[in-house]
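Q: Mind making up any chain with structure tokens?
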Amino acid sequence: MAGLPDTARAAVQRLSPRHRRWRRLLDSLTLDPDRLPRPVDAPGPRDFVICGCPRTGTALLTAMLFQPPRVVTVMEPWDGMRLPPAELFESLRAEVATGRLRRGRLDLDALERDGSVVWCRDGESDHPVEAGPDSQLGVKWPAFWRYLELLPATRFLVCLRDPATTIQSFAHVGGRLAQGLDYDTAFNRVMNDTLTAATAEPAERRVLLYDYINERIVPHLSRPNVLAVRFERWFTEPDALVADVRRFLGVELRTGVARVDARPPRAPDDETLALVQRYCRTAEPLGYSVS
């Protein structure tokens, strides 16, 4: 905290020990893509990114694709907010080469035991993994949509979901997303500041968050190195969706590695529907209806 102003230092000191640890972690995540040298060094040809608006199925897709030795996926390693893309993937490949995977927030024991998609703390597990230099490696961070324009040759799996269900999910999950904001890190600072300045109403800001991200995703969806993965297809045509991903990655995949919750998503409430109908600008460009 040495570099903080006195008022900020005092505010941090008033936090509980758990919140101080969380604040220190967030402050250590200093990567801002706008400050990376151009052109941005790309990951390798067997590396790919999973991204999209939060709450659109990025975790489920990551779990579905954890299929070593052909494919290894890593979910939201905090180093993704510290290291530029090429360096991040290189460091993860070096870790996988040891036969163990420690980074990532997907509980791999639960996934392999019964298909559960369960979160854990980054670095909390130490899971054996069999993979070689020819394996595909994917990193999932929703906020990595920011790399779409910076990595024109890297493969991206971009998750999409209808606006009303996604925005209602923001509210139910709580935390920053319920406020219509993402993690308070350098990676998200411009977006968070823009959304905070736009409105003081969290319900409105949740719609603006959805639009802010997807407006920047839409122009890239037609590129050959980008595949749109619609959340709804996990319930209507999972085999066809896996086949599309298989062709895109050029690798054999099994179907049903992770368990898809058979319960339908909660129907959006009237307030959320009204807000989406009033404010949402990206539903139609994404292929969704708000009526």
In short: The mean pLDDT is 93. Strands lie at 47-52, 71-75, 100-101, 127-128, 136-140, 155-160, 226-230.
